[in-house]
Write a structure and sequence with these properties.
Elements (H helix, E strand, L loop, with lengths): L5 H19 L9 H6 L5 H4 L6 H25 L6 H13 L2 H7 L3 H6 L3 H25 L5 H15 L2 H5 L3 H9 L9 H12 L4
């Protein structure tokens, strides 16, 4: 880790993560290199390795940032309401995911490779952000669904979180993919992030 204040280190990390996010808007994971990330920062390419040793670590940090932002929004939803119906909870969860398209896109990548090619300390920070988002959902359910048992809350989380990992490929389809499905006679219904997340949350909450 380079010498300097914690603030400077965090500022440099944020700059690198933001550069990666900017490239990810128009490029795929496999096409983005540390060299290209460095060209969008004030750091030289070699200096990036003081903060992140692999490209996967940068992407893991970007996903960690997305988890933290999502958790904050979920906490704000819980704190700003006294009561919510099951349908309102489903709507709120769906709307929160609708705003996190980058997070959903990152979910569609190979998590195993990102985590396998990251140092333990980076992976631990990421897992803490992941845990925060789980806790935020659980607290929402605990507050607004008081009759829901701990096991049912856990069942919701262990169903909803794996589900949202697959939302992006089902809601964002390239023209090439669309043509391939038409040629293969796939009868596919195109849904928005909100629609597919809302439907899932409703079913898990036991409402039709």
């Amino acid at each position: 880790m380079p010498r300097g204040s914690i603030e400077l280190t965090n500022a440099r990390k944020d700059e690198i993560i933001n550069a990666c996010a900017s490239l990810y808007e128009t490029m795929s994971f496999k096409d983005i290199t540390i060299k290209e990330i460095g060209e969008l920062t004030t750091c030289k390419r070699a200096a990036i390795y003081n903060y992140f040793q692999t490209k996967e670590e940068i992407f893991l940090a970007l996903l960690q940032q997305e988890y933290e932002l999502w958790a904050k929004e979920l906490e704000a939803i819980t704190d700003s309401h006294e009561k919510m119906t099951a349908d309102e909870i489903a709507q709120a969860l769906a709307h929160s995911l609708e705003k996190r398209q980058r997070m959903l896109k990152l979910f569609s990548m190979n998590h195993f490779d990102m985590e396998a090619n990251s140092r333990l300390e980076n992976l631990t920070e990421f897992k803490a952000a992941y845990a925060k988002s789980i806790t935020a959902v659980e607290k929402c359910l605990e507050k607004f669904c008081p009759d829901m048992s701990k096991k049912n809350r856990q069942d919701f989380i262990y169903s909803f979180f794996p589900f949202i990992y697959g939302i992006y490929p089902y809601t964002v389809v390239t023209e090439k993919q669309r043509k391939a499905m038409e040629a293969a006679n796939v009868n596919y219904v195109y849904l928005s992030i909100y629609e597919i997340a809302y439907t899932c949350a409703k079913k898990l909450l036991g409402i039709s």
